[in-house]
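Study the following:
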Amino acid sequence: MFLLVLWACTMAPESAEHADDDHDAHKEEEGEHQDVVELGPEAVAAARIVVGPASEGRLAQTLKLPGRIVLDPQKESLVSAWIAGQVDRIQVRSGESVQKGQQLAQVQSPELGVAVAAFRTATARDLAADARLERLQALEKDGVASRAQVLESEADHAEAEGEMEAAEERLRVLGVPMAWRAPHSGEHFPSRIPVRSPISGTVLTADVGVGERVDPGQALFRVGDLDQVWLLLDVFESDLSRVSTGQHVSFTVEAWPGVSFSGPVDQVGDWLDPQTRSLQVRVLVDNPEHKLKPNMYAQAELTEAQGGALGVLLPAEAVVLVEGRRGVFVEEQPGHFAFRAVEIQAESKSEVLLVDGVLAQESVVLEGAWALKSELEKSELGEGHAH
């Protein structure tokens, strides 16, 4: 009996050690099962799981900026009345498309007749002065007229010619055609002048009514080309190094929720506002459907062309939170997905940059990680291993 007890005491520590090893191995194996999800091909397809290689790159940094929509000044025009009068005809409405030179309205003005009469009077004086100068020059050759008379006639002729050119230029500004400048005998001077669009585009505003009295220079219509607009951004001095010509800008406007517009940076301004410490950045935006209107406010994101640390890039949806740990699912073999904690250096709205946890070209679940997380949590609740 003594020998039997002694043998049992000698073997007990060794048995206990083996028992502890078996328990630790079981715990380790159990821990592995808690971080692994196994699914069959049909389950993978049903969960819409997409696996792809992790890529190496730099996180695209974005700069969020407020902006406003404006028109290119060379593609926008205020159409004014060049002479005082009364509007007696309007031929377009706001929203209509017009061509360059198209008549928008008509203004009746007595001053138009006065301007035509002034031109005809100046023309007659110039012809008379020219004839008198030629006669005196001929008489001077015959010794009948003096040199002083010829010089005086030359001065009168120059004055008359200047008055005629000024009267003619006024008619040109008023848009009076050549046929109106010399009416036939018995015809009255015209009293109506057309108001024409200097550019092709859309009538944005029509601030005039029939019978309204207008003054010279008063804006009657605003015409603009909406096929391409400008997005103006105010960039602070501290962010200037992050902006350059050609960068891609995407933005949204309140009028079209869920719709994203975009365009390249066309110009970075050279004038820094001393009060706001910002400068203006211009973005060209194609607007074929005319959804963007002048004076709309926008929220823009400017994507930096380069910059940031190099690391493993993954879609933001590939990263999930499990028991306080952020990580991804790595497909170690078909249908065998292991959760692996990762270290994130930087992230944007759509991407994350990893510095530890996943190597480039490893097969990572890019879409459907939330379904695997759900299966993993079910397994941890004691419902068994997912298959």
Q: What stands out?
A: The radius of gyration is 42 Å. The CA atoms of residues 69 and 292 lie 7 Å apart.
